[in-house]
Amino acid sequence: MMDALSEIRERLIADMFQAYEARAMSTVIELGSHARQKGLASERSEWLLAVAQQSLGRLDEAKTSFRQLVLRWPGRASHWNNLGVVARQTGDDSGAEEAFIRALQLLPDDWELHYNLGLLYLQQRRLLDARKHLLLASDAAQGDIEVRLQAAHACHLSGDTAQQTRLLGDAEAWPPLAVEPALLLASMLGAQGRQTAALATLDKAMQQEPDAHGSNWLRLLIQRAALLERGNAMTPARHHLQQIRSIHEMSIQPFTSALELELAQLEAAMAVRDQDWPGAILHYRKAAGLEQDPAALASIRFGLARALDRLGQTREALVEARQAHVAQAELAAALVPDLLQPGASPLLLAHDRTASEDFRQWRPAPPAVQASPVFIVGFPRSGTTLLEQMLDAHPDYQSMDEQPFIHELSVRMTAVGQPYPEALGDMTAEDIQQLRAVYWSLVGGCARLGSRQRLVDKNPLNMLALPMIMRLFPDARIVLCLRHPLDVLLSCYLQSFRSPAFMLMCSDIRRLANAYRQAFEQWHDQLAVFTPRVMNWRYETVIRDFPGQCQALADFLQMSDASPLADFADHAQRKGFISTPSYAQVTEGIYQRGIGRWQACRELFEPVIEELAPLMRRLGYSF
């Protein structure tokens, strides 16, 4: 039989639950405080009190209450989880981490605990830890969209494109999202080249907004304009920008800092399109003053550096680039710490070589069913995108944007116990056909070739994968893109790359020059081994004699008509999304300004000239 004290306690808890369900949180707190004063507190009353304090934003009080709960009932994972959430909300990251870890020790398979810990690590930019826990949560959460979105975000930031693609595979079918998740999803889909899905995500979110010109609606419209610009759809992008400017001018309330930041970034991108370098610099500087996230700020500073460079303010450009590299290098070092070790190379295949005696023992490859791709290779920023779009403009060729499929094949070989490139020589005809089938299956996921079309596989660093190319496609024609090495290094130095390895590679001019030298040393070594069909495509010669080089390319590839090659700029404009940093420049046609830019900042290259001089001479360039 319940004693009188227990009866009073149960009635008090019942009143607290009733108030809680009615969302009368002040009443819950009043009753909970009364229970404490009268010695009637219990686990349930203390939990209700803490939750009510949290709900009303009285976070320090809530943290104290949850701390009391875990001290009195340390075996309850839910109390540790709640303490972790409130600690994170109050900025107590170490306390939050400790609480979530204690909760996981009690319930190691609870996906919500992994999710909360992953969000904490994501907030702290501990990206590898965030990815680990958010992937665990996503795999166990039965398709919860918010969990999948945050897991994809962690993969996006840490450079895990395969997992990101998997998690967002059916994003087109997702229901409408709130503003922040919609902006995040659209940004990631846009970076993947899924422009239609990204725009649809924004449109669905805009339809949910009650205020057609409110701040949330405007943020969605700004991102819509940015996506259109990124996809070379300039007419609708300009229309959206004009809408936004008009609303900005007529707005009585000042824009929020988030709106001002996003608008400044859009204005900067549009000014770059118009080659309005003073305008771009103005808007980039405004954005830099508003941005708090180090990675995003680095990207803005790179944009500012390029605009300053185009205006001839080279020293100022290098200052901005150095600041951007410091931020990016810190991020990349946390993701790929092994690359900071002495002798480590950011170019994964730079040391993978096949010796002449090994090549002579290779078994003959079986005839290919499909025509071999045309491979476009070269160090990044050497003009590969220009050449790719020229070939893509020809009706007999189709590119697939920049894909890592050749490298993926080497990874798959190693994963099944066949070391690359050593095991290439042991492959049977059946092995080769199977590997070709894997390649064409990967291609089929992003390109649909016509019956008479030949694939263009453009990936600059496939220059390091010559053994794989020659094993699968020994008759393939390869075009090596060349450009003055110092122009290449300068362009890389001023560029923001998503790959953590490339972030580190480009953050230091010595490391960058060393990678360039390693790439060409491997290329020349393997060129002597395999003697493939190669054409050197020299950027400076192309710019000075475009018609002649078009014909030379047509002759090398045995084209009957070279005239479509000249339509590349209009073709790129019509094509829309192009994944590489040159997506805007390639729509401008042929121009001279990319030649000799290094001469304005000779001092940047003083530390590496001696190292690069022999290679520069071999490639036909001088300092």
How does this model look, in words?
The chain has a domain of 264 residues: P-loop containing nucleotide triphosphate hydrolases (Rossmann fold). It has a five-stranded parallel beta sheet with strand order 2-3-1-4-5. The protein contains 31 helices and five strands. The protein has 623 residues and is mainly alpha-helical. It starts with a helix and ends with a helix. The longest helix has 22 residues.
* Mean pLDDT metric: 92
- The top level CATH class name of the domain at 356-619: Alpha Beta
User: If strands are numbered along the chain, what order do they take across the biggest sheet?
Assistant: 2-3-1-4-5
Structural class: mainly alpha
Number of strands: 5
Distance between the termini: 97 Å
Output the radius of gyration.
29 Å
State the CATH superfamily name of the domain at 356-619: P-loop containing nucleotide triphosphate hydrolases
Major pleated sheet: 5 strands, parallel
User: Can you tell me the overall shape?
Assistant: globular
CATH T-level topology of the domain at 356-619: Rossmann fold
Helical proportion, percent range: 55-70%
Protein name: Sulfotransferase family protein
Pfam families: Sulfotransfer_3, TPR_16
InterPro entries: P-loop_NTPase, TPR-like_helical_dom_sf, TPR_rpt, TPST-like
GO molecular function: protein-tyrosine sulfotransferase activity
